[in-house]
Amino acid sequence: MAAVGELELPALEVLSPSLTGPELHAQLDELRGRHWVARAEPIGYVILEREAAAHFLRAREASFPALQMLAVHGVTDGPLPSMLSRNLLALGGEDHRRQRKLVQPAFTPAAADRHRPACRRHLEALFEPIAAAGRCEFVDSFAAHYPGRVIAEVIGAPIEDAGRLAHWANLIQSQFDPVKLATIRDQLERAYVEFVEYAWALVQSRRGDPREDLLSELLSFEEEGDRLSEEEVVSLTGAVLVGGVDTTQAQLSHALLLFAGHPDQWRLLAEDPSLAPGAVEEVLRFEPITPFTARIADEEMTYDGVTFPQGSLIFAAVASANRDPAAHEAPERFDITAEREAKPLTFGAGPHFCLGANLARVELAEALVFLAERMPDLELDGEPVYDTPLGIYGVKKLPLHWTGA
Question: At what angle do helices 93-103 and 230-244 cross, to 10 degrees?
């Protein structure tokens, strides 16, 4: 048995500006070839192999360090820790299990399938203005708007508020990015306060006027006499918004970037829409928008003869685990027809597995089928601009061109 702090481990500079795009995967691949764990300079450890990453994500001795990550950067009071402390992400134990059990009916595959017609309506509306041009900057003209419109309809907000919801979601999600937390904290706090005020008003309106939307469902769900409080409904609505907008925007952008570089796969999808579920899984595996998923050791943990002391900050490097040769045949090949036994860890694993995973898969599948048919011969029309992989790993700019307009 060895203490992790006593090992001579390779190191990953997680705050390095070079850690993005192809260089992100190059560095992770090199480290994984040397050890299953590396130092995450300057604040913890990074787990590189799939089996090990899945272990730490599922471990009951670890939890998501929501408040601790804020505290590391000196944010211990104000709107961010106050509101995050009530978020499902920050809850553990019985509080977490209770809320997950109460809301689970709203997030089943069947529940997600109900939103396919809404996805198609919004895809049609967003594509119409760019169809004739045969080119676009995909993020600003399409990806940044699609998930916000869908989530607005899902929670029961007016569609004209979709832009505001997306704006709030993008800012609030940035609380897990140390660079943005240090530079635009005031904007993040303002977005949190504004959204909570908005959500409270929406919840109050549903109390006397229930409809066929997520807010009404959350207010009505009951399990053995237990129901969610209005405060819990507001918090869960925020979790759905933040977890369902920036993430889907980023994953769809990465998907189009991948397909632009793999035209044979894009043609396959256009010719056979039934490949969409496999295409979604391969996109999630190959370019996860959660490259590093954090856990904190609530007690001493041991894996493969290595002991991590209580309080250790541990990052499951999903971007490395999803390409682990021990788990996947030809992991560096992007192939939407591949039958891969190991599921991607992009949505996490264990108690904090992403609640909205089924809805995200539906949104992505509908978008890929829709766009593959209408954007033949897809290719880059300039250089993409990547965001930081800390927090949600997105694409800032994605210029695309296609024929057949």
Answer: 80
